[in-house]
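Format notes (please read before filing issues)

Several people have asked whether sequences and structure tokens are stored in separate files. They are not. Every record keeps both together, in the order shown below: the sequence lines, then the token lines. Line labels are part of the format and must not be stripped during preprocessing.
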Amino acid sequence: MRKEMEQRVELERQRAGNAAEASERLRGAREHVVEKILTLSCPRCTQAFVDFEGCFALNCSRCRAAFCAYCLADCGKDAHAHVGSCPEGAASLKAMKSKEKAAGGGGGGGGARGLAGQGTTYGTRAMFDESQKRRRCKHLVLYLERHDGETQSKILEGVKTELADLGITSRELRHWQKKEDKAIAEREKKQQQANLAAAARGGGGD
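Then the structure lines:
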């Protein structure tokens, strides 16, 4: 009887330890999402920022790093060259124009102007918000893919207030999940094709 009691106590101790460990992992995951994905910050020194004054080539007020307001990439001393060719900038402009067109604006309002396939250095707050919503959704979906379904749900539950404040809906996250799944499948297909081509070249040399 005493041995059984000791085994039960040990089992409960292990369960409590596992629960505490899981809770700590979940807390860490929530903290990562809020601080590294949802909060706008300098890519070099991580100082948070909220202001946008119309130029997508930004400079950190603390470390003076130059970075892109579309994708938050560290661009060294000057971000203007990167901003003009940033893929996220071009994608954000395209998305902005599509929304304006769907709303009856003809796709040319709101300052969403730029050459096809290019970003624009100057724009509106609405353009900036659109680019950051896209960035947040993309990186959140990529981060969630590291976890199982149950943990994903718990993480999203833990940041639902922050997501609501940013106007990010579950529908948008599902949309980005599909996009990333498609992109991963395309990359895997290209890699398989490259492997087959390499194998064919190797076999032809025997």
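For reference, the curators noted about this record: The mean pLDDT is 87. Residues 38 and 65 are 20 Å apart (CA to CA).
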